[in-house]
Design a protein that fits this description.
The chain is mainly α. The protein has one helix and no strands.
Length: 59
């Protein structure tokens, strides 16, 4: 009985770990998109610095 209980506990822990790992994949996808947004911002800043784009203004 104790051995069976131990196996069930390990099985449940394995399922819990798999759920956590699956949620990480969902959380990491948007984070990888942020890097692209940061690179795009840097590119826009560089274009403004080089005079290729006008700086945005508020009227």
């Amino acid at each position: 009985m104790l051995l069976k209980s131990g196996f069930e506990r390990v099985r449940q822990l394995t399922i819990d770990v798999e759920k956590v790992l699956a949620s990480f994949e969902k959380e990491l996808a948007p984070v990888s998109g942020q890097k692209t947004e940061k690179e795009e911002c840097e590119e826009l800043r560089q274009r403004m610095k080089d005079g290729l784009l006008k700086k945005p203004t508020v009227r």
